[in-house]
C-alpha cells in the first residue's frame, strides 16, 4: 500500500517504513505526527484519488530527527558593473519514518489486535462438576432456611 501526501508545498509518494525528508515540522524527536493531507491511496489494483483530498485518510509518521540540509550558494552578478553578491542557504528539514497508512483514519492494526486478544483475555467458563453442584445446592438451601428464620 502506498499514499501520496502533501506537506511543505511538495508532494511525496510514501509506503510503510519509508524514510523521507520534508521541510521543518514542529514536532519532537521520537514523537508521532499525523499527516492528514492525503491526495491518493493505492493498494494493488484498488486506487483512491481525492478531490482534492481523500476523505478521512491520514498517514502516521514517527519523527526520526530534526536536521539541516546541505548548504547551497546563491551567486548574483550584473555584468560590466562589478556587482557580485554571494549568499548561502541551509534548509531546515524533518526526517520522518512512515509507520502506518490509514485509508479510513482508523488504525487497522488495533482492530486486529483487539480481536486477537478478545478470546485470550476472556475468563474461561467454569465447568460444574457433581461435587460443586451439590455444594452450591447446599448453600442455596441454607440461605433459604436463614431467610425463613428471619
Short description:
The chain has 150 residues and is of the alpha+beta class. The chain contains two helices and eight strands, in the order ββββββββαα.
Q: What report would you give on this structure?
A:
This protein is an alpha+beta fold. It has a domain at 1-77 and 84-103. It has helices spanning 108-121, 130-149; strands at residues 2-7, 10-15, 19-23, 32-35, 38-43, 46-49, 58-78, 83-102. The mean pLDDT is 83.
Tags for this model:
single chain; 150 residues; alpha+beta; four-stranded antiparallel beta sheet; 2 helices; 8 strands; 48% strand; elongated
What is the helix content? Answer: 10-25%
Low-confidence stretches: none
Radius of gyration: 31 Å
| Inertia-based shape | elongated
Strand line-up of the largest beta sheet: 2-1-5-6
Care to count the β-strands? 8
Strand content: over 45%
Question: What structural class is derived from the secondary structure elements?
Answer: alpha+beta
Blueprint (SSEs and pairs):
Elements: E1 2-7, E2 10-15, E3 19-23, E4 32-35, E5 38-43, E6 46-49, E7 58-78, E8 83-102, H1 108-121, H2 130-149
Antiparallel strand pairs: 1-2, 1-5, 3-8, 4-7, 5-6, 7-8
